[in-house]
Amino acid sequence: MHTIRPDSPETALAVSVKPRIIKKYPNRRLYDTDTSAYITLSEVKSLVMDAENFVVIDAKSGDDLTRSILLQIILEEETAGVPLFTEQILANIIRFYGHAMQGFVGAYLEKNMQVFMEMQQKVGTQPPGMSSEAWTQLVSLQGPAMQNMMGAYLEQSKSAFAQVQEQMQRSSEQMLSAMGFKRPG
């Protein structure tokens, strides 16, 4: 049996992994159990921006409402200013609900977002002492380079998707053949 000492690095990790609990009450208010105070959706957004580990639960039923709250934040952001998603993107996402590829699309989007976040980290964050205006100008100069990098990435992604699709088709044909079904020819 492995024992963790209170002062060990493992304890600090275990403590940091435990999510912050936000309770949602029937009156639609959100209660942060860490601060023992009601918080707004904007403050929940700040938790997301700060990469805080949290979960939103229904105070009455105990159901996990985290996804619902995150979607609500996205909805507010989409209606508040310059939207991130075009109508075409939203329509395409909706079309995949109930589709056989729904699970694959979710995983595909998640992986693409993860790669994009890694690319963003490589570009870097604003250096200390540099003004926001100067940083914005510098980043805007990198726009064409980012577009080229994203274009190359999208071509690789398209190729990988085609390979996965071909592999799935071969696997399906093999499975059906093993069950005695033949491909119509």
Comma- or semicolon-separated keywords:
60% helix, alpha+beta, flat
Could you characterize the architecture of this molecule?
The chain has 185 residues and is an alpha+beta fold. It has 2 domains: 9-80, no CATH class; 87-178, no CATH class. It contains 7 helices and 4 strands, in the order αβββαβααααα. The protein has helices spanning 9-17, 41-49, 66-80, 87-96, 102-123, 132-141, 143-178; strands spanning 20-24, 30-32, 37-39, 54-58. The chain has a 4-stranded mixed sheet. A hairpin with a 5-residue loop joins β1 (20-24) and β2 (30-32). α2 crosses α3 (66-80). The protein starts with 8 loop residues before the first helix and ends in a 7-residue tail after the last helix.
Question: Can I get a quick summary?
Answer:
With 185 residues, the protein is α+β, with helices and mostly antiparallel strands. It has seven helices and four strands. Strands 3-2-1-4 form a four-stranded mixed beta sheet.
What is the terminal separation in angstroms? 60 Å
Q: What's the helical proportion of residues?
A: 55-70%
**Order of secondary-structure elements:** HEEEHEHHHHH
Number of helices: 7
Judged by helices, strands and strand pairing, the structural class is alpha+beta
Largest sheet: 4 strands, mixed
Task: Give the topology.
Elements: H1 9-17, E1 20-24, E2 30-32, E3 37-39, H2 41-49, E4 54-58, H3 66-80, H4 87-96, H5 102-123, H6 132-141, H7 143-178
Parallel strand pairs: 1-4
Antiparallel strand pairs: 1-2, 2-3
